[in-house]
Design brief:
The chain is α/β, with parallel strands linked by helices. It folds into two domains: 131 residues, Ribosomal protein L1/L10, rRNA-binding domain (Ribulose 1,5 Bisphosphate Carboxylase/Oxygenase, 2-Layer Sandwich), CATH 3.30.190.20; 84 residues, Ribosomal protein L1/L10, domain II (Rossmann fold), CATH 3.40.50. The chain is built from nine helices and nine strands. A four-stranded antiparallel beta sheet has the order 7-1-8-9, covered by helices on one side. A three-stranded parallel beta sheet has the order 4-3-5, with helices on both faces. A two-stranded antiparallel ribbon has the order 2-6. Strand 3, helix 3 and strand 4 form a beta-alpha-beta unit.
Length: 236
């Protein structure tokens, strides 16, 4: 798709050679967001990993202090008394047989799926469907657990999941442009800190190559990675 006149006009205001301090990047993202809806603020990271090696896959979760600004739809795959726990915690959908059949038929109107360990042998058979959509529950993301109440509440409160792609890039929505600067800043710092903790032991060289912040329909602003690293070393 060719960039629209609106996007071209906005993009001309971005210095492509500059690496922006975090606060300035956030201010620019907010100032240049011009869509008619509340755009998501997104962070994209280019990682220094070998994406072909499974042991260098970067995958985890981040509990954003101020959430994402998005209503997260959660499905809990479980049986028996845990269904009531899921319901009380605010899960949008809960149960097992009914939803397994719906998923097989093509239904995936959810953002996250949580499952209890006792049903994972059956959920695993849905791997080809859920895996391609990034919806397969995993212990690493705390989405395979008997404590479904806590899992649902944390997801509803703004806990996000992230995973590096086949090119070694990783991205996540960290809030809305309507958030004030301080809230966006804290969400971004929390997310970056959680990513940096997951450096694979076999990764060589610089782990975080570039970091870019943008709104859904806006241009990206490259961050000053050295500034971010120094900030992290001082404890955020």
């Amino acid at each position: 798709m060719k960039p629209s006149k609106r996007f071209k006009a906005i993009a001309e205001k971005v210095d492509r050679t500059k690496h922006y301090p975090l606060d300035e990047a956030i201010e620019q993202v907010k100032a240049l967001a011009s869509a008619k809806f509340d755009e998501t603020v997104e962070v994209a990271i280019r990682l220094g990993i070998d994406a072909k090696k499974s042991e260098q896959l970067v995958r985890g979760t981040s509990a954003l202090p101020y959430g994402t600004g998005k209503q997260i739809k959660v499905l809990v795959l479980t049986k028996g008394e845990k269904e009531k726990e899921a319901q009380n915690a605010g899960a949008d959908y809960f149960g097992f047989d009914e939803y397994v059949e719906k998923i097989k038929a093509g239904w995936l109107d959810v953002d996250v799926i949580v499952a209890t360990p006792d049903v994972m042998s059956e959920v695993g058979r849905l791997g080809k469907i859920l895996g391609t959509k990034g919806l397969m529950p995993t212990p690493k993301n705390q989405t395979v657990t008997f404590d479904v109440g806590a899992a649902v509440k944390s997801l509803k409160a703004g806990k996000i999941q992230f995973k590096s792609d086949k090119t070694g890039n990783l991205h996540a929505g960290v809030g809305k442009v309507s958030f004030d600067k301080d809230k966006l800043r804290e969400n971004i710092v929390t997310f970056l800190g959680d990513v940096m903790k997951l450096r694979p032991a076999t990764a060589k060289g610089q782990f975080v190559k570039t970091i870019t912040v943008a709104s859904t329909m806006g241009p990206g602003f490259k961050l000053d990675v050295k500034e971010i690293m120094e900030f992290m070393r001082k404890g955020g």
